[in-house]
Amino acid sequence: MSDTVRIGWAQADITPQKPVLIAGQFHARLSEGVMDPITATVLALDSGESRAVLVSCDLVGVPDSFRDAICSRTKCGVAAQDVVLNATHTHTAPEVRLPDWSAGHTSCGPGLDLPAMPVQDCVDFMAARIAAAVDEAWSSRAPGRIAFGLGHAVVGRNRRWVDRAGRATMYGQTNTPEFSHIEGYEDHSVNVLATYTETGDLTGVVVNVACPSQVDEGMFVLSADYWHETRCELRRRLGEGLFVLAQCSAAGDQSPHPLFDKRAAERMLELSGRTEREAIANEIGNAVTETLRAVGPTASDSLVLRHHVEHLDVPLCALSEEDVRAALAEADSCEAQYEEEKRKLEARPELREQPRWYVPVTRAYRRMLWNRGVAQRYEQQQQEPTRPVQLHVIRLGNVAIATNPFEYYLDFGIHIKCRSEATQTFLVQLAGRGTYVPAERSTRGGGYGSIPASNPFGPAAGRAIAQRTVEIITALWE
């Protein structure tokens, strides 16, 4: 097997210039402008016998239909199974998920007509630009060198807390006598993979952190969130032509928002003169530059490249009749709210002239469908208790890159890292459409992200993915 890897990079601006639906909240959001570009970054790796094309997108998720739309448009001859897409999980990017109740997310349309680019048109626009970037990265590949290393930055924090009765809550007010503890732990690692020319010039970095890109998750404008500031900061330090490929490690229960020391954190931002996103960019910038100083001299032009991809059948979340009854009761309540909001709009058409008039009615509609999905999945699991998910595992020298398509809770990610044969393991969540896969302790506490309506897949699926990922890594190192 060849051990010389050729490297190619490209980046595409995939920002729509028309109003689009923004993904990431229950209520619909129409984009009212562009705060910063939505981008896709591509890294092509080719040893002659094995290849991998990594594509990072400033999106909330990358469903199979979006992946297929990209791969069907490429002209470079790279097989679809060699392309690995991941989302940074910014909550201020266009919706690219076509309606699918079984996905367990809130992408099933807004429930009424809104003046937005149709999702399919948005998919076609973005897919064409990303496919062109894949072709560009592949055609530009050339011999180079690769180094890797580990730094640390406080970016992601556990976003779930537990009260004295054992009930868990995502976010919420922790200043209460009922507060007991933060549910889980955190991963502050910053995994860095750097590429160089044969003469030693830095060309790009893969930066992997255990935190979704959602500082400003409720805005009505398009933005890459903190990854925009991070790219700008890294290019300021390391060169304007630097490619930056962002990856989110296992972080289904993580976010950039602290649950404690909030006032102290806000004070420090004021004193530093930075926004929260700029502070994160500075933290990541420090970690990356420190890591590169240490690992740059180790850059090698001779590395084993192996890429394994498979579909693993994993169990759907086991639902009970009581789960269905509770979800349908909530769905009925949401339906009543939805119908009431529609009556208001019909009786008073002038309400449509108010800013964001559609928020209440679309929130009720989507929550209704979200809960009804529990009953639909209950019927489905009687005939089809498992569903296939795609996993990629790449060996690049002593680095493992392992993907899953979910918002994968940190407990599972740490399990894989602890058992991995690789010197360093890059986990990549949201290499697919999304939905939470909670840990066992999280389902005991409940709360958003760990209840039946949130989870087409449960802890059993999380364990199956972790176990199989470890097995594949072990096989690639034998």
Explain briefly what this protein structure is.
The protein is of the alpha+beta class and about 475 residues long.
What does this structure look like?
The protein is of the alpha+beta class. It folds into two domains: about 5-310 and about 390-475, no CATH class; about 315-385. Helices cover about 35% and strands about 25% of the residues. The protein has ten helices and 21 strands. Helix 1 (about 65-70) packs across helix 2 and helix 6 runs antiparallel to helix 7. The longest helix has 27 residues, at about 320-345. It is globular and about 70 Å long.
Shape: globular
Largest sheet: 8 strands, mixed
- Spans of at least 5 consecutive residues with low confidence: none
How many DSSP-defined strands? 21
> Count the helices. How many?
10
Features:
single chain; 478 residues; alpha+beta; eight-stranded mixed sheet; 10 helices
Give the SSE map.
Elements: E1 6-13, E2 22-23, E3 39-46, E4 51-57, H1 64-71, E5 83-87, E6 93-94, H2 119-139, E7 142-152, E8 157-158, E9 160-163, E10 168-170, E11 179-182, E12 189-197, E13 202-209, H3 226-238, E14 243-248, E15 254-255, H4 262-272, H5 276-295, E16 305-315, H6 321-347, H7 359-383, E17 386-396, E18 399-403, E19 407-408, H8 410-419, E20 424-428, E21 436-437, H9 440-445, H10 459-477
Parallel strand pairs: 4-5, 13-14, 18-20, 19-21
Antiparallel strand pairs: 1-3, 1-7, 2-6, 3-4, 7-12, 8-15, 9-10, 9-11, 12-13, 16-17, 17-18
